Amino acid sequence: MHDDAIEPFFATLAAANPSPQTELEFTSVFELLCAVLLSAQATDVGVNKATKRLFALAPTPQRMLALGLDQVTELIRTIGLFRTKAKNLTQTCRILVEQHGGEVPRSREALEALPGVGRKTANVVLNVAFGEATMAVDTHIFRVANRTGLAPGRTPLAVELKLLERVPPKYAVDAHHWLILHGRYVCQARRPQCERCVVRRWCDTAASTMPAEG
């Protein structure tokens, strides 16, 4: 993707969805952290079903610890890797209570020190909860960034760094939401929906296979 295409690419995505949101359901920074931690190799829909029950009983790290590992495990049983995630979640709650006064820290270093929280999860929390211009590169963003030519890279970190370099500052806070949603619903893995893509004229792949508009 040529540098001149980046501004109209994001302006078009912004016009179509001015206030993009994560599809995970949460009512606090703590619930967001839990939901993102549970979302690895799981759908947002599946996570939301489980967390609806979980958060009703344990909306704080203190309450989560009081539930205990066995009950947390049972409540998230429908999510992939639930045993490991339950263990990470309860250990994370213990650290939040013992080291952070029950609050979610807003530094990358402190977030990544929590069990089950990697760079991508930390980026989501920093972006969604604290409004930082981070890029949480999941499979959708990785695919869209490479397929469109926006930020080609062989690893998620390479794509993340390229996005941070190329995304205009005024779009930086919302960019990862637009790219995730675009990858989830339009630029899909098996069959990209190029015929209904609003940004196809700036996409390296689509531009090579169909005539540009207007």
From TrEMBL:
Cofactor note: Binds 1 [4Fe-4S] cluster.
Pfam family, one: HhH-GPD
PROSITE patterns on file: ENDONUCLEASE_III_2
Cofactor: [4Fe-4S] cluster
Residues that hold [4Fe-4S] cluster according to the record: 187, 194, 197, 203
Alphabetic keyword roster: 4Fe-4S, DNA damage, DNA repair, DNA-binding, Endonuclease, Glycosidase, Hydrolase, Iron, Iron-sulfur, Lyase, Metal-binding, Nuclease
A single BP term in Gene Ontology: base-excision repair, AP site formation
First-level EC class: lyase
Annotated EC: 4.2.99.18
Domain HhH-GPD: 38-185
GO MF annotation, one: class I DNA-(apurinic or apyrimidinic site) endonuclease activity
Catalyzed reaction equations: 2'-deoxyribonucleotide-(2'-deoxyribose 5'-phosphate)-2'-deoxyribonucleotide-DNA = a 3'-end 2'-deoxyribonucleotide-(2,3-dehydro-2,3-deoxyribose 5'-phosphate)-DNA + a 5'-end 5'-phospho-2'-deoxyribonucleoside-DNA + H(+)
Domain of life: Bacteria
Xref: SMART domains: ENDO3c
Function of the molecule: DNA repair enzyme that has both DNA N-glycosylase activity and AP-lyase activity. The DNA N-glycosylase activity releases various damaged pyrimidines from DNA by cleaving the N-glycosidic bond, leaving an AP (apurinic/apyrimidinic) site. The AP-lyase activity cleaves the phosphodiester bond 3' to the AP site by a beta-elimination, leaving a 3'-terminal unsaturated sugar and a product with a terminal 5'-phosphate.
Family: Belongs to the Nth/MutY family.
UniProt-recorded name of the protein: Endonuclease III
Biological source species: Rubrivivax gelatinosus
